[in-house]
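Hello forum,

I keep getting stuck at the same step: I have a sequence, I want structure tokens, and every attempt I make locally crashes halfway through. Rather than fight my setup again tonight, could one of you with a working pipeline run this one for me? It's a single chain of 565 residues.
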Amino acid sequence: MTTITPREISPRAVSALTAAGVSPLLARLFAARGMVSPAELDLSFKALLPPGLLTGAREAAELLADAIEAGARMVIVADYDCDGATACAVGVRALRAFGADVHYLVPDRVNLGYGLTPPMVELAARLEPEVLITVDNGIASIEGIEEARSRGMSTVITDHHLPGETLPDADVIVNPNQPGCGFPDKSLAGVGVMFYVMLALRAELRERGAIEGGREPNFASLLDLVALGTVADVVKLGHNNRILVSQGLQRIRAGNMQPGIRALFAVAGRDAARATAFDLGFALGPRVNAAGRIADMSLGVECLLADDAGQALQLARKLDDLNRERREIELEMQEAANRILEAFNADDDQYAGLTLFEPDWHPGVVGLVASRVREKLHRPTIAFARGQDGELKGSGRSIPGLHLRDALELVARRDSDLMLRFGGHAMAAGLTIHEEKLPAFRAAFGEVAASLIDPADLQQRIDTDGPLDAAEISLEAARMIEREVWGQGFPPPVFDNVFHVERQRILKDRHLKLELSLGGTRFEAICFNCTDPVPSIIRAVYRLNVNEYKGLSNLQLMLEHFGAA
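Reply #2:
Ran it on my machine without issues. Output:
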């Protein structure tokens, strides 16, 4: 059963925000997301938390500045997702702007796996680096850092993932989630951490007088990359991250973006002048991620590093093709997952945490399958695919109420032989096990999930911003909402109202097109991937959407859930 719950709103916060000039509707929406002070409305770059608060940022800047002055070669080891690709691009672009000799590598998802492993260090050693830098990984790379240091490399870890009990013995670690770091925002993405390190490096070189007058790089030019990686990694959009995303979107809308970002908007058929966080998360991000899922993420990094518009467009088209292929693979895997779940029983404790595996699943797409199953059944889900040497590579997605990495930590404590390695966040994690251990892992994960999750958290709940008056449901309101930054932890507004259904028809054999009425006013609406007939009166959860068609704009309600009123 799905419950619809209006978000709680602080009247005092609404009053403070409206007094600061915010529209009544936005004031309600902001207050419902925990905003209490008008100071949080300031999304200018000057409101960004200073780099000096980030533990290790200054030390990393000093090490990198020394390396630049010495002409030392650097190699960045990136992760194979969009956050890792954008973090790598930020690092390469910024370091080259300072004249650094910098190269990069991205591990192959299937053959080398995640992070700075000893084999990855061996591969990096062929480039003869004196400094090895990780982006969006490294906090769990104890053996990899040992290998790098044994080869005489200086090591700098920039990461945002949660650390284990033991930290790698790197020269410098920059991670807001490491013990002792007082950085107020623990939700920086990997690209955000790298951007902060580059800001600290610029300040360090400025102090040393190593930047010639008038030639200091303007890192605002990197904010489109920072915005993309931050949104695509689905990190919490607190005030600091919203500044980074807002600043990046402002530059994109003004036409100031990397050629690769411009090309990705083009192949996705999106208007950069009206760019939103939704575009970054659901149009550009998946195309960059497709390279790391089913091919080589170097293709995504090269697209983001391209300075020639023609080359960037060519690379973006390849990413678009890979994304189409990824969607086809995902659809086949999703159908297989649905067959597995035919025996699903919501009242059975063993289904508190789901573990899925099919021998022919693609390791780069299992995370998406886990996400789709989680959305459908509202259960923490881990999907596995075969790796090498009898190993299974798993990717998990969780629900509010279960911290996934902590759950895996508890599984490991109960039986240290079940997992070879694991890591991640509250809502997403990755792990590797031996295939023979799958039945034992499935049972252990189900038991741990059942012990940690409150049964109430297993009930699907939709949080909404309550009803709107008919006069509030307007194209102007939709545009006003569209201009703001929404995302994880600051979710896009959804409303719920009781409507009369005046008309309904099936569109393209897949979607339900409706005409709804409220208080004598009629509204166009659509519910995607739905063909069931609708009763004459419904309670609907919906988003306000600006529908562009043949140069005309009109309001359309996007239904996310509905039932008989």
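The chain has a mean pLDDT of 94. If your local run keeps crashing, start a new thread with the error log.
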